[in-house]
């Protein structure tokens, strides 16, 4: 059973960089035909896909967030990390990590989500 767990600060000040880590257990970041995503949900809004890192370490980002987003990984720890720069209160959201599977053609595993508030 694959499990994902987000970790990071719950409060970030405006203009700072938000960094969140997703720790994967029961599976490997190098597994073929899956990619590892960051998705967020601002209060009162729908889910917003932010980007992913694939089994080869290649990344792909939402065009609207590309200039501020980067995703990296540490395969020795089975973790992948989101960095979002120059945050504003508009980046306040619940942040999720999730695995997307080619076989399922969808997200088959999700973390429980972590609340991040951007405020001074």
Structural overview:
This protein has strands at 3-7, 11-12, 18-25, 34-41, 48-54, 59-61, 69-74, 79-84, 93-101, 106-110, 114-118. Helix content is 0%, strand content 53%. The strands form two sheets. Strands 2, 4, 5, 6, 9, 10 and 11 form a seven-stranded mixed β-sheet that branches. The radius of gyration is 14 Å and the shape is globular. The chain has 120 residues and is mainly beta. Strand 7 and strand 8 (79-84) form a beta hairpin. It contains no helices and eleven strands.
Quick tags:
11 strands; four-stranded antiparallel β-sheet; 120 residues; 53% strand; mainly beta
Quick summary of this structure?
With 120 residues, the chain is mainly beta. It has strands at 3-7, 11-12, 18-25, 34-41, 48-54, 59-61, 69-74, 79-84, 93-101, 106-110, 114-118.
- Summed over residues and divided by their number, the pLDDT gives a mean of 97
The DSSP helix count reads 0
Structural class: mainly beta
Shape: globular
As a whole number of angstroms, the C-alpha radius of gyration is 14 Å
Helix proportion: under 10%
Strand content: over 45%
| Through-space gap between termini | 39 Å
The H-and-E topology, N to C, reads as EEEEEEEEEEE
User: What are the segments in which pLDDT stays under 50 over at least 5 consecutive residues?
Assistant: none
**Total number of beta strands:** 11
Report the major sheet.
Answer: 7 strands, mixed
């Amino acid at each position: 059973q694959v499990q994902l767990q987000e970790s990071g600060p719950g409060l970030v000040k405006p203009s700072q960089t938000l960094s969140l880590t997703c720790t994967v257990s029961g599976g490997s970041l190098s597994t073929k035909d899956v990619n590892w995503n960051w998705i967020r949900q601002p209060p009162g809004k729908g889910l917003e896909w932010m980007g992913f890192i694939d089994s080869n370490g290649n990344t792909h980002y939402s065009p609207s967030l590309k200039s501020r987003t980067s995703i990296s990984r540490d395969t020795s720890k089975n973790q992948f990390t989101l960095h979002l720069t120059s945050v504003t209160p508009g980046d306040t959201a619940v942040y999720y990590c999730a695995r997307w599977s080619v076989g399922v053609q969808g997200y088959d595993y999700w973390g429980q989500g972590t609340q991040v508030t951007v405020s001074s």
